[in-house]
Amino acid sequence: MFWLTFLSHTLIVGLFWVFSMVLNGCLAGLVAITAEPLAPTLGLSMIIGAIGGASVGAALGGSLGVAGKFLGGMVFVNGGWVLAGIGGLVGYLGVKAFKKHKATKDGLEVGKEIENYAEMGWEDMDKTDLQLRLKWYGMFWRPTTPGKFMLRLRIPNGIVNSEQLKVIASIVARYGENGSCDITTRQNIQLRGVLISDLPEILNRLKKVNISTTQSGFDNPRNVTGNPIAGVDPEEIIDTREYTIKMQNYLTNEGKGNSEFSNLPRKWNTAIAGAKDNFLLHNDIVFHPVKINGKLGFSIWIGGVLSSVLNEYAIPLNAWVEENEIYKITSIIISLWRDNGERNTRPKGRFRFYLNKVGITKFRELVKEKYGELKEDPGSDFIKEPRSFFGIHPQKQIGQYLSLIHISEPTRQA
Q1: Which H or E run contains 225?
Q2: What is the pLDDT of residue 301?
């Protein structure tokens, strides 16, 4: 009887061991290709798995003796992998869903349905349009405040005039305590508390004062940034306002939507430097104004990123283009990443991951194949220490001064 019991228990352990090896192989592979963002949680998963394994092992140990301890040990080892595998599977399915939704219907197509949706209400909207595609027009569904949306504008260079500000304030004011306005790190403005029923009218009012919301969210070219004190900066090389507006119009097709850039692997950030301040170097592409033989042009820096998984400054492409060529070179660089960047693992979809994979030298060659001969960077550089943008400072206009304030709380009521 002893030997029979021993052999049966050994067979149970053996079968579970084989099963565990197959399970480990499958789940490890799944986690490896899909669950990179879950890496910090794998340790926690193992602890939870260990607790579960110890419980099962203790329960089985009472009836299976030594075999139960082995079995408990196997559950201990595999519990964390199971949880990690489940997380990886969820992540994988989520990425597949994103890819499918983006491929099935371009987010820009929802624009022609906005009036319809305003009439029917958010409750009856197509769920993917509600939660995903409205972002192509800056409208963000918030599950914590159902029916009250966030609307992200496009404010190139972060500069608004008094007429625009009055319209923005009046939109926020109509919602009373539910309405507010955020000033973002990308020199932009977001409105909160917006109702879908008001969206067509709001978009028309914004359009009349030359404000667009097109492609301001999700996997699109975001607000174009520049020198925050453009036009009055005593250290500026160029006034960036004109360039940021032109770049925005190029990327968004004058606010009508640009399908060339409406299905990117991730978001894309563009900046045009007016001086040598390094705060713009976290953008995917930065244009630095430099003259060659008295002719104004821009040196190109690429690959800046600031995210939860990567923090890197842009690096020089060792290329210089004339000022009217910055739009063409931007299109080429974006298209190379758009067509070849990572789409299966969203955290690795940012441009810098693709650039690191290809290498800066090879990437320059790829750009050259599409653009033609590239002039070398004549020596663009950014200052290492940031300037103070607080307090009273002289303007470039002799005898005039500007007052710079720090906004400690970026959310404002009307």
Answers
A1: none
A2: 98
Please give the full DSSP string across 336-383, using - where no structure is assigned: HHHHHS--SSGGG-SHHHHHHHH-HHHHHHHHHHHH---BPP------
Residue 86 amino acid letter? I
Residue 177: closest CA among 192, 160, 156, 199 = 192
Kindly state the tokens that stand for 406: 């720090």
Residues 302 and 382: beta-carbon distance below 8 Å = no
CA distances from residue 414 to 38, 155, 194, 334 in whole angstroms, order as listed = 40, 18, 13, 37
Going 22 to 28 to 33 to 35, the CA torsion angle's sign is positive
Q: Is residue 154 within 8 Å of residue 211, measured between CB atoms?
A: yes
The DSSP element (H or E) to which 311 belongs, if any, is strand 311-312
Whether the predicted pLDDT of 286 surpasses 60: yes
**CA 247, CA 89: separation in Å to the nearest integer?**
40
The answer to whether residues 160 and 191 touch, using CB atoms and an 8 Å cutoff, is no
Residues present in the chain in total: 414
Q: pLDDT at position 90, please?
A: 53
Mean local confidence (pLDDT), 75-101 = 56
Res 11: pLDDT:
55
